[in-house]
Amino acid sequence: MPGTAQEKLARSACQFLASRLLYWQGSHTTTRQLLAKRHFHATPTASVFTAAWIPSRVKTPWVDALAQSRDEQARGKSAAGQQLPPKPDLTPKRMSDSYFSAILPLAQDKWLLDSYLNASGRIRLGTLFMDLDTLAGVIAYRHTGDSVTTVTAAADRITLLNPLKEICDLELSGQVTYATGRSSMEISLQVAKAPVNGEKVKSEDLLITCAFTMVSLDPATKKPIPVAPLVVETEEEKRLFQKGEENYNAKKALRKKSFLSQTPDESESNLIHSMWSKQILSKMTSTAAIENSDARTMSSTVLKSAMIMQPEDRNRHNFMIFGGFLLQKTFELAFCCAASFSHSRPTFVALDPSTFENSVPVGSVLYMNSLVAYTEPLLHEDGKGNSKYTKVHVRVDTRVRDVEHATRKSTGSFHYSFIVPNKVQVMPTHYTEYMMWLDARRRAQELDPIIASRFTEDAASARMDGVTE
């Protein structure tokens, strides 16, 4: 006789459990076949790549650093109060003393490559920016020693020189190239296609050149302290040192040119007045003048982001976020802003000198606000007429707040230049936007000759075909 509903349910459950037991007992071979068919495999421990500079960025596991901090708070003591840090070594050093290089084996390790590729199979420049900042920190400590605290104060220039045409191993290298005994030092870095058999890097294989300014602080007081000056010996070292001095003076001059302390000059005032009067006239004659052209208002290009700062992105001092993380996130937001504005895939050209104004604590909330601040058409090779490409300058302003949102601090402004493959234009509409437009225009005009020579139609086309993004 057929059983009750409860009995039928019980028998079905038993049959299901029995079938699952048989499956798990006898399906090891089938499972292995399935994994093989799907190309899944266990990666041996020895094949996992860890960049040589990563252990130098973080010295203590977060759980240990957090426990130590809580213990110090409970005892009412700080590490600085328990032990005075040793005095820094101010013995003059050579540039070669801080030199460091490492190979990023992207062509050899596909699992490593996973963390550097985007959805279109191109190398994520933002991830390389993180590596460069970390590498700058490693080089800085080779110059100062471990008795001081070193932080990133500015990214003086990041320039994409030559488009990378294929996925290959990359060599990251650099050294301290400017230090006079003050608290700051300039570190020059480069990313290049890894040379073969110890050969020197060829100029056409250079992907990125950049300079970071690092500042040395007293670990207890967090006040700037001097670092060892450089001994300059060769002609090449003299050239690098002179370039560092020029960058130092240029940063000071840039601060004096800020529109917060200096009004626009006569030509700039005439220019923005002409732009403003044309906008007023267009509104009087046709309210759709802007919408029917290639121009967009600056306010319509705004793109924002917010995120909580996690311990995995901390620096070696454990409770602050390292500067490379900000570079990566501001770059990616700037990229999205330029893409949204132009309806195309932008190609990175350069990061203008940008300053890290305040540190970003672990656990805080980082706010980022991006907008297109300036556009300029590229000229044809013969200099006659405009090409189909446009230079797009994106400004990213960042600020940090605690989780309770009781405090608010600016953490810096970052200025990225891109090329887009169509004709677009941004239009400021009120005084604050006009000032940002003029600031971005000045930055575009002050690009060094190496960058300016690459703002051409042919070079733009070559960059579009590269494997970086």
TrEMBL record:
<feature type="region of interest" description="Disordered">
    <location>
        <begin position="71"/>
        <end position="91"/>
    </location>
</feature>
<dbReference type="GO" id="GO:0006637">
    <property type="term" value="P:acyl-CoA metabolic process"/>
</dbReference>
<dbReference type="GO" id="GO:0047617">
    <property type="term" value="F:fatty acyl-CoA hydrolase activity"/>
</dbReference>
<keyword id="KW-0809">Transit peptide</keyword>
<feature type="domain" description="HotDog ACOT-type">
    <location>
        <begin position="299"/>
        <end position="424"/>
    </location>
</feature>
<dbReference type="GO" id="GO:0005739">
    <property type="term" value="C:mitochondrion"/>
</dbReference>
<dbReference type="InterPro" id="IPR029069">
    <property type="entry name" value="HotDog_dom_sf"/>
</dbReference>
<keyword id="KW-0378">Hydrolase</keyword>
<protein>
    <submittedName>
        <fullName>Acyl-CoA thioester hydrolase</fullName>
    </submittedName>
</protein>
<comment type="similarity">
    <text>Belongs to the acyl coenzyme A hydrolase family.</text>
</comment>
<dbReference type="InterPro" id="IPR033120">
    <property type="entry name" value="HOTDOG_ACOT"/>
</dbReference>
<keyword id="KW-0677">Repeat</keyword>
<feature type="domain" description="HotDog ACOT-type">
    <location>
        <begin position="102"/>
        <end position="220"/>
    </location>
</feature>
